[in-house]
Amino acid sequence: MKKLLILGSMMGLLFTTSSCRDEFLESEPTETLANPPAQAKLNGLYLMMVNTGTGGTTGHDDYGQKGYDLTADLLSGDMVLSGVTYGWYRNIANLTATTDFTNNSNYMPWRYYYRIAYAANDVIAGLGGNDFVPATASDKASMGQAKAIRAYAYFYLTQYFTTKYDPASPAIPLYTDTGVAAKPKALQSEIYAQIVKDLSEAVTLLNGFSRANKGMINQDVAKGLLAYTYAAMGDNAKAATLSLELIAKFPKTTAGDLVFDEASATGGGFNSLATPSWMWGFDLTLANDLDLISWWGQLDITTYSYSWVGDAKSIDLDLYSAMRADDIRRNQFRSVNETASGFTTAPADAAGTFDYPAVPVNKFFDPARTIGGQRIVITDYLYMRVDEFHLLAAETLAKSGNEAQARTVLSSFLANRVADTSYISGLSGTALLNEIYLQTRIELWGEGKSYLAMKRNKATVKRGPNHLFFAGQSFNSDDDRLTYDIPQAEINNNPNF
C-alpha cells in the first residue's frame, strides 16, 4: 500500500508519556451541575468509553474501550501489526510491553477500567448504596446500568490482568464503594462473585427499561456481559441459557451487512449503530471530536489513519487460510494499492498470499470509501452484537455436553456465511470445539473478542508467516506475555502490594 502522507506533526508524540496519576483512583466525569442526576453521570461514563486520554496519557493509543479491543486482537495474534513506522503498538506486537510494568500499555487499561468502576460506585452510592433497591423506574434503570458498567470494568480487568481463571488466586483490588483507601488484591472468586451479583441484579433492575439509544446498557447487554462472565468461569450451562435467549431476540448480521460487495458497491461496513444485529455501541457524531486518535484512526484505511500511511492492521495469514473457500468473509480482507483515482484491491493469490497487507477494507470502512478520507470520525463504534452469542451458545452447549444442539446452532449461524455447512454434522468432541473457536476468531476479527475466547478455551495460538515478530511461534493462552502487568503506578501508590 502506497504512503502518500507523512504524519510529521505527530512524530513528537511517538513515545508514550511517563506513568503517573494524581490520585489513587480518579472520579470521572466532572459534571457542571452541583448534584447531577444519576443518568447524567451515567451518560458521562458512556462518553468516557469513547473519549481520548481516559487512560491517563496523550498517546494515540489512548481512546477508551476500542483501544483495548485493538490491543487484545494484537495480543491474540489474529491481528498483525504490518508496519512500525510510527511506533504505536510496536511494544504490544513484540510482547515487550506486557512484561514491563513501567510501560504505559499496562497503565492505560488499569486506569481506565478503575475510573469506570469508581464512577459507577459514585452513581450507586448516590442512589442509596449497593444493597438499596430503588423505588422509581428511572432510579431502577440508573442503578441497573451502574451495576452493569461496574461489572463490565471488573470483567475486563480480570481478563487482561490475570493469566487464567483460578478462583483461589489473588488478582486485583476490588472496590465497591466511594472510598479511595488502597486495598490489597482480592481473590478471583471474590471478584467474579461481585461481577455475577452486579450483572444478575442489573438484569432484574433493567427489566422493562427502554433505552434512549444503543449507547446505553439495557437488560440484553447486561445478559450478554453475564453470559461472557459465566463462560469465563466455566459455568457453561448458564452461559448457554443466556446466549440462547439473546439469539432468539435479535437477527444475526446478514450477508449484505457482513461484506462490502465491490461489484455492486453495496453492503458491509460495520460502521452504523443502526445495524439490527448490533446490541451495544456508540453513535459517534461531530460533537465527539474524534480524529486520528481513535480506533478508526488506527485501523481503517478509508480514515485518516496510521493503517493508511503504513502501519497497517492486517489479518494473520494462517487464520485467513483457515477460512473455507466458500466463506464470504474471505472477501472482507484485501490488499490495497492507492492510485491517482482512488484505490484498487486484490484478493490473495492461489498460494494464499497478498501483494500488500491483507487489511479489512470490506469489513471496516467509512461509507464514503475514500482512502485516507475521513478526518473527523463519525463512523460508529461497535461493542457487542448478537452474532457473538450464536458462537458463545455453540461453544458453551458443546462444553456442557449438548453437542447436538451446539452443531445445530453453529450450522444455522454459518448458513449465510459458507455455502455448505454439512461438514458440521460430523464434528464432535475436540473437533467440534476447535471449529467453534475457529469460527469465533473469523467472525469477530477486529472486534476485541478473540482474546476472550482464547482465554476461555485455554488455546495455544500460533503466529502466521506475516507477523513482524515471532512469526511461526506458538504461545499458550496463559503465557505471561499475553497478559498485562499491574502497572508501576499501582505498585508505587498501593502499600498493600
TrEMBL record:
The segment(s) forming the RagB/SusD domain are 346-496
Q: Where is the signal peptide?
A: 1-21
Q: Where in the cell is it found?
A: Cell outer membrane
Provide this UniProt record's keywords sorted from A to Z. Answer: Cell outer membrane, Membrane, Signal
Main location, first listed in the record: membrane
What InterPro entries does this protein map onto?
A: SusD-like_N (IPR033985), SusD_RagB_dom (IPR012944), TPR-like_helical_dom_sf (IPR011990)
Top-level division of the source organism's lineage: Bacteria
Pfam families the record matches: SusD-like_3, SusD_RagB
Q: Which residues form the SusD-like N-terminal domain?
A: 88-210
Presence of the UniProt keyword Signal in the record: yes
The UniProt record lists the keyword Signal: yes
By sequence similarity, the record places it as follows: Belongs to the SusD family.
Please give the name of this protein: RagB/SusD family nutrient uptake outer membrane protein
